[in-house]
Amino acid sequence: MSHQEARSWRIHDEQDLGAFGRGTLKRVSVDLPDGSSFDQYVIVLPEAVVVAAVNAAGSILMVRRHRFIVEQWVWELPGGYVDEGEDLEAAAVRELEEPRPSASRSSPSRDGVASGPR
């Protein structure tokens, strides 16, 4: 075992606590490099995209949505879940094309569609 491996975090137990909607909740027991251990609760959700669409004038497309948890209307970047078998770029484009009541109708360019680490 290398020095780096000896110092890494190690998961020694995972327990599925149940499913809800599109996600699951797990309890993960972790050993830290210093020898201490703790339980971490992890929500596992399907893959999703968030799109920062900027038009030629430099404006960013935002969507106004009501969030019931905070009981407020908020501004967000468009985004959503990736459908089964859909690639990330297609999901991003679909999220930009879905009708939104408060969204601007000026179409941002697809140039510069990029994805982060998977």
From TrEMBL:
Is Transit peptide included in the keywords of this UniProt record? no
Q: Which cofactor does it need?
A: Mg(2+)
Keyword Transmembrane tagged = yes
Residue intervals of the Nudix hydrolase domain: 47-98
Chain intervals with Low complexity compositional bias: 101-110
- Positions of region (Disordered): 95-118
What keywords are annotated for this sequence in UniProt? Hydrolase, Membrane, Transmembrane, Transmembrane helix
Q: Which SUPFAM superfamilies match?
A: Nudix (SSF55811)
Q: Which residues cross the membrane?
A: 41-63
The record's annotation in InterPro entries points to: NUDIX_hydrolase-like_dom_sf, NUDIX_hydrolase_dom
Q: Which PANTHER family match?
A: NUDIX HYDROLASE DOMAIN-CONTAINING PROTEIN (PTHR11839:SF18), UDP/ADP-SUGAR PYROPHOSPHATASE (PTHR11839)
Q: Mind telling me what this protein is named? A: Nudix hydrolase domain-containing protein
Which organism was this protein described from? Microlunatus panaciterrae
